[in-house]
User: Fold this.
Amino acid sequence: MTIIAVDQLSKTYPVALKEPGLKGTIRHFFKRRYRQVKAVENISFQIKAGEMVGFLGPNGAGKTTTLKMLTGLIHPSAGKVHVAGATPFNRKASFLRQISLVMGQKQQLLWDLPALDSLRINAAIYDIPESVFQERLAELSDMLSLGNKLTQPIRKLSLGERMKAELLAALLHHPRVLFLDEPTLGLDVNAQVAVRDFLREYNRLYGATILLTSHYMADITALCERVLLIHQGSLIYDGGLDELLADFSPYREVRVELATPYNESQLVVFGEVESINGQEVRFLVKREQLTQRIAKILERLPVLDLSVNDPPIEEIIGRVFSLGAV
Assistant:
């Protein structure tokens, strides 16, 4: 069952042009000129109920604009979008009860109040009966390991605890679709892992559909088998994460610790030298040449240690964006 359907969706913003100086200011006041900036251009995709999909792109690519159109916060300039059987920008109550948006850079909980007070407000907004509220509160707070933190003012919670409380507030009404925009932004490693574990478990228990944007690739690799890549407002890839990595990573990374330092000119015969840090060298070697090159390295260099890995996923995704197409 398709729960999110996007067809040729676009968003264009008019941006005022102003010349410098007094003359430009006067002209700008009486007769403004505009240029059209395309934030999102003709993107199309579908997401099935229960999927967890990563939505990736560099800053300014159009990710947040797309999420805002999917949640009805802004009206698209062109195209069609349906989420949970509704047109988002109509903002009907029946639609709003089925979705939730969590933005890592913005908070919905009141700063000086205990989280529990804000949660009670949310329960009233969504007409959640007291018995259901208590049941969901106990379940979600246990899953998020919040314990007695809910009775403390939000300002006294750590960043990780605040994000957990934000997730609890966003899920109190059990939405069918969850949009997450940088939910682990600024969190330490332990807090990031806790949020990922919670999202994975929530998806397993309730079959919620999750569309996740993040600059932390560990979020994507831990949660999403499928990714959407957006670049300069256009969708350039929609498919499996493993397939993307295989297509754009024809190299293996060979890390070598040498007994003595070498300069780059002495090492290029063994593969593309990606970096040299003292006696540690990082090569990129084509997969089909891997066995031959490793044998050559071991034969001709004083190797203390050697390891072979795939290049970091951040580098692979960055290579895709630098090409601008898949």
